[in-house]
Amino acid sequence: MQLVIISPALLLVGLYYWLLPESARWLLTQGKKEAAQKELQRAARVNRREIPEILFGQLEMEPRLKRDNLLDLFKTSYLRKLTFIFGFTRSSCYGHSFGCVGEIFHLRCLQHILYFYNRELSNQFKALTLTQLLGQALTLTQLLGQALTLTQLLGQALTLTQLLGQALQFVSSQGHFSNSRRISVALDQRSSS
């Protein structure tokens, strides 16, 4: 029965890949200037605007952007401080969700926090790698399919419109990299109740 309910949504996920274009910015960072120019022209055509050819000439003259990496977060003292503050804030927020308020060195809390960081960091590296290899459109399409499947697995009786709405909301709230946080929290809450 669940397969019958979710099959139209899975067909729409396949269409989502062809409807969602790669972003021109991402294409430029990957060195695909012709494809980026086509996407910009298509966006201008949809918005009934004209892009002067001078802008495309400037696009050709600009040097390729330097790729950022994880070590850039630790190059300056300001970024190191921000990285530490964000990490500490995340830990304290997830400590509340694990019921570890005031018990940070309790063995159960440490196990939850280490498990969370192990799962979260590995999934973020996987998402970054997939985005670099496959592009944003295909990665977001896979994430949409996972969200649809997760929604169905959680046993919620939803109509197709509600199912797609929740999946799209899930995808938009995740951005490009953090695709596991809400899944892990939802599954942890589901298993504890």
TrEMBL record:
Record membrane topology: Multi-pass membrane protein
GO CC term, one of those recorded: membrane
InterPro entries per record: MFS_sugar_transport-like, MFS_trans_sf
Predominant localisation class: membrane
Gene3D superfamilies: MFS general substrate transporter like domains
Keyword Membrane annotated: yes
Compartment(s) where it occurs, according to its Swiss-Prot or TrEMBL record: Membrane
Keyword Flavoprotein among UniProt keywords: no
GO molecular function, one term: transmembrane transporter activity
Keywords: Membrane, Transmembrane, Transmembrane helix
Domain of life where this protein originates: Eukaryota
Protein name as it appears in the record: Solute carrier family 22 member 13
Organism (species): Takifugu flavidus (sansaifugu)
Lineage: Eukaryota, Metazoa, Chordata, Craniata, Vertebrata
